[in-house]
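agent> call fold_tool(seq_1)
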Amino acid sequence: MHHKLETQLLLTNFIQFVKNQFQINARTIRVDNGTKFILLRSFLQNKGIELQNSCIHTPQQNGVVERKH
């Protein structure tokens, strides 16, 4: 990913990939409080996917990648 604007396209493609490959629907997406995820809220609601935000200043909730930083 080169720009934050690519987030929506990549996440929608990933959701479709998971559905096609594993025949399951994503139920929850957990994100940090980045502004790049604001536009995704309505898309995820239409798909029935819950958007969870992690608490601010708690990188340990953001998974392995954030802990490595």
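agent> call fold_tool(seq_2)
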Amino acid sequence: MRTFSCVCGQTLFFDNVACETCGREVGWCPSCHAIGALESLGDGNYRCANTGCGAIVVKCTNYAFEHVCNRCLPAPPAHGGRCDACRFNRTIPDLSVPGNRERWAELEAAKRRLLYTLDFLKLPYGSADEGFEPPLAFDFKADTIPAEGLWRWMGAGERVYTGHADGKITINIREADSVEREKRRVDMGEAHRTLVGHFRHEIGHYYWDLLVRGRCEDDFKRAFGDHENPSYGEALQRHYAEGPPADWRDRFVSAYATMHPWEDWAETFALYLDITSVLDTATSMGLIGAVDFGDLNAMVGHYRRLGLVLNELNREMGLIDVVPEVLHAAVVEKLRFVHGLVRRQAEGRQAA
């Protein structure tokens, strides 16, 4: 993730809605693909003040009225006034519940970072109207209403599971509650549990449907194993009954990845997005030199070296490791399969 600049010279960041120095409103411009100052033209129209742009835009309705977004879209607006990130929402939290607007804002911030990385990698995604099968969509739901700071679960029929099905990614908004998320992380023995991590994992399932299913399943089986035998249900039951194999760290990115080839793929895909995002940010911030994102070996090498430094810095502050994964050869080979699919998509779109 790169940084941006206000017309006053102040550095702007991806999530900013205002310049901390001059107070100007800022937002993501779909024309120059950057955060920039917005000059009001009246009637809800704005001009992007970024040098060489000047596009006429309007704020996303979730920016202008709900205050959970910071993106704009070209004037006159399409998609019901929703930006290129919010247009994929199918369900949002009940905003009459105290705290849900703040949780929704955190979910939207994580989703915007996800989509930024997908665009950076030139990965395809879209709606049914745009010819995508499956079409991408997001549901942000809650189990029950939190009372007095506690989450209540009244039965299996009311529980919302974070997951993916036929292009629709569902996130339980409990994951936007930092205390609840940390409890789950500790209970499940996870190195990380973050909102953006959930999005990266679930989008991996989306890309299995979009890029692997019916296209290169034999190659997938050679890299990740047979996803048809045992069935997902059988594998899930066995995983929670027996746990991961003792040597899982030598062959998998996480214990959960051992459950079934689909989960191994999703965890590996999420790691690939982690690597891409971290290296993009580190390059933009001047922490490392230029990275060849077409060379997986170079990417892994940079990520390993950067991880050592970042982990030690976090340990000095008593924080968890930034890079908890151990990238053994078997994990790198699975990353290579993901990398090959991603690069072919990027090259195909560039040629088109």
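agent> summarizing second result for user.
The chain has three domains: 4-83, 85-215, 216-352. The longest strand covers residues 34-42.
agent> awaiting next instruction.
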